[in-house]
Every structure is written in C-alpha cells, then in structure tokens.
Amino acid sequence: MDAYATHEPATAATGEPASDAVVVGGGAAGLSLAHRLAAVGSLTVTLVEAPDGPRRPAERTWCYWDRGADDLDEAVGASWTRLRVHGADGAPVTVEAWPFSYRMIRSPALERLVHDRLARTPGGRLLRATADTVRTATTADGARAEVDCTTPDGRRLTLRARHVFDSRPLPAEPPARTRLLQHFRGWFVRTDTARFDPAVADLMDFRVPQPRHGLAFGYVLPLAPDRALVEYTEFSRTPLTAPAYEAALARYTRDVLRLGAFTVEAAEQGVIPMTDARFPHRDGAVVRIGTAGGATRPATGYTFAAVQRQSRAVAAALSAGRAHTPRPHRRRTLAMDAVLLRALDTGRIDGPAFFTTLFRDVPPHRLLRFLDGATTLGEDWSVGLCCPVVPMLRTALELPFLSRRPLAPRAEESHR
C-alpha cells in the first residue's frame, strides 16, 4: 500500500507525507515492530526495506519461546514442547517445556504476514528503498527524525516522522570487555528413511569437538520424520571458513546423528554477537532496535523474544501518546551475562557441563524464562545456585577492573 493518512503536511522537498513512525530494516526487529505498530490502527507507519539485490539479506530462521497463541501464529512453521540437550558424555536430558513451546519462523513467512498487515492498514506503508542517512532534526514543533532514501529507480526521498526505529547494523561495534560470536551453518536435510522424532527439538548436542575458547554444539529442529534443520554452532572468538563449517556438519550428521543417505535441500549461515558492549539506544527521535540496539541476549544469542517484548512495549507507548521506548534487556540480566561471557571466554567454566547442568537441575519453565531474561530476582538466585560458584564469583570480582576496548580488525571477518 503506497498511500496512507497523514498527521502533518507533506514535506515541500519531496512531497512525502510525514508519519508517526518510520521503521528502517526488514529483519526480525523491523518486521516485528512494523507489525505491532500497524496493529494499533491509529498510527501511520512506514516500513523501509532494502530492494532486491546485494543489500537484501538471505532467508533466515528465527526461534523463540512463547506460551499460548500470539499474533505471529500464522508465520510459525513448526513448534515443539519437548526439548533435549545431549551432554558431552552423550547422556540426554529431555524436558517438557509446557506451558511454553519452542517456535520456528522462517523470514519469508514473517515478511508475508507483516506485508499483508501493512497493506490492510489505512496508515500502513511498505517502501522498498535503501536508507542512506537517518538523523534527528529540530523543528518548531520539537525534535523530528528524517530518513534519506534512494529508491531502486534512483529517486531520492526524505521521510519525516515523529519517531524513527533503525535496525541497520552499526558501523562499528561499541567497546567491550568480552567478545564472543555465535556463528553457525545449517542444512535443511531430507533423509532416505525416517530418522527424526518431530516431537523433540535438540537445542544443544555437545557430542562434537570443543574449541579452545567457548563451546560448540549441534542443533536439530525436526520438521518431519525425514526432514530437519541440522546446524553446527560455536560460541567462540572468530568464525570458521566455509569448508570448516561443511566439514563439521558432515562429521556431525555422519558420526553423531548417523543419518545415512540424505539430501541437503537448502543451507543457511550466520554470525551473532555475544558481547558485554553497551549498545546505543536513542539519539533524539531516532531509536536503535534489534541487534544494533542491544536486543541480542549476550550469553545465549537469543534475540527474537526480546524483540517481541520491546515491540509490544513501543506500540503500547506510541498508542498512548508516550515516546518511552524501553531497552530490550534489564541491567541485572546484562550484568549476569557479562560474568558468564567472561567465564566462558577464559575457560574458567566448562560450557557444555554448565548448560547441561542447567537443563538437568532447573525446572524447565523457570529455565526458559531465565534464558529470555524474564525471571524475578529470587528466581535468578535459584538458577545461580546451579552454577559453579567459585569461578563465577572470581569473574564477577574481576570485571569492574577490566577496561572496555574497541574491536580490533580481524582477518577472519571475511568469512562471515
């Protein structure tokens, strides 16, 4: 839908009407926020997505916990209520996630859902363009935000809005004390015979060789008895080369899962920052969202659930005429994650043993809320008692004396 109601006069320079909100970026954060803002009904919302070409990201898979039905159900491709972790010794730990379910959404399904919502909303608009510059501008009515865009046919547009939510990657990662990456490659496989149990998702399978820093695990989301997404994932300092990912996946599917003959129908690859850096949040009328705004949980890499919480809160605030936009994670959550990241990076704790113990000893409903940063202080303490106390305490005492340093260039960056 290319026309929408306006609350302010059109800009003289471009003829573009101003809107309540402009959302920049068509990833998980941008799509989710545009979806929730459009659902309000009384707001004018423009979603700016990159046109087809090199700037448009490849298809992606997002997973999150939730309970009951939600407004993303139409985009959910699969879900599981039984979850399993395999320790390094091969012993499985299976838990019932109820009342939660672990849900998988593929990016094309979420795009269709959100685009349809925008098309059916009088104040909704989807604009395919490259966002070149985002800035706050001071007007007689106060701070406003502007987005300079270039359309696929070369036209220049300036969008104006009361609020701009920018999900584009930062030009440089903020200084940090600890940096790990969650990097992975996955295959969508089809086997010749039934090899998977569609009722159980394997979140972490530590029956793989471990890196010197961090940890590595397999990840299996069964879609049918003969179909699954199988990934090899590492929490470590640098990504692998493409041949190294392929070799790791080949070993995992052959030696651990013993899949026999299978066909790789599609593949995906990604890198997620795991860092205690302080990400920017607001610059006047411009708010950073998604990974660029610190939505990625530092110790787990989970992002999608935090994006949903923040999107709901932003939509509720704007609907009520307030400009408040909460940060995606609480300070307590970030402080705990900083300790765990440092302990993993220094090798003071055994990563596979740590996560296996959590799944074995913590009640599942509490653990899943803890992984999403939604537990109370008392529940955080109860989970903390299952952690190796001495190395975690040593790390907590050390952190205040460590300086935050800018990211040094890495040769391995080219493998992302």
UniProtKB/TrEMBL annotation:
Superkingdom of the organism of origin: Bacteria
Name of the featured protein: Lycopene cyclase family protein
